Amino acid sequence: MIKLRNVEKFFAQGVGRSYVLRQIDLDVREGEFISIMGPSGAGKSTLLSILGMFDTSWTGEYWLDSQPVHQLDRKKRGELNKEYIGFVFQSYHLLDHMSVYENLDLPLSYKDVKKSDRQSMVADVLDRFHIVGKKDLFPNQLSGGQQQLVAVARAVIARPKLILADEPTGNLHSAQGREIMEVFKRLNDEGTTIIQVTHSETNAGYGNRVIELADGWLVKKEEGRGHRDEVAGAA
């Protein structure tokens, strides 16, 4: 589904360069659940931003479902993002002036889904995430865990093939974090490809593969569920 070849990200620094990512080669199969781990400043969120097509100033090759992202202009990348990707931000990124219902409806309106279908899809996801009673509330009326549930619901409502999540439980207490991770596991079991950035070995344990970054380099890949002991110290 995803193929990265020699992907690099750098900033000009005097006459030289300061690298954030170096020579990243990565293949992701459809239906995988991958965790990106490593210390702060390793390049994890930058890599996720490139995969989500929010960052466009990088070099190398990025293929998404046979589409050469590295050769596409900004408009085409935006269209590909809308078609394939749901993004879950650590800080939720809900629109404060919109209700829960309106926040969920918005990505469907971007995809030109007709109103009757949008109403049905919003109703379905409200029920699925057990937030029907919150639909008329605004983000500042919700707890952090409730806001993140809405953010996850918004990311999946258009049924993306790929979910990218940046520290999705970073601001939540343990029970709320488990709830979010169980949602991700159910989605993955249903066939959605998931890539998350996490410092948590517990969260990484929900997936089937870990990749570890250090100083912008991909330094380790771990295969298989039940890998927590193998990546001890990665956070």
Structure description:
The chain is an alpha/beta fold and 235 residues long. It has a single domain, classed as 3-Layer(aba) Sandwich (Rossmann fold). Helix content is 33%, strand content 28%. The chain has helices at 44-51, 74-84, 100-110, 115-128, 144-156, 174-189, 201-204, and strands at 2-13, 16-28, 33-37, 59-64, 67-68, 85-88, 162-166, 193-197, 209-214, 217-223. It has a six-stranded mixed β-sheet with strand order 6-7-8-3-9-10, with helices on both faces. The protein has a four-stranded antiparallel β-sheet with strand order 2-1-4-5. Helix 3 (100-110) packs across helix 4 (115-128) and helix 3 (100-110) packs parallel to helix 5. The chain is globular and about 55 Å long.
Summarize the structure.
The protein is an alpha/beta fold and 235 residues long.
Assign the CATH superfamily: P-loop containing nucleotide triphosphate hydrolases
The strands making up the biggest β-sheet line up spatially as 6-7-8-3-9-10
Query: Per the principal axes of the C-alpha atoms, what is the gross shape?
Result: globular
Strand-pairing-aware structural class: alpha/beta
| Count of DSSP strands | 10
Tell me the Rg in angstroms.
Answer: 18 Å
CATH class: Alpha Beta
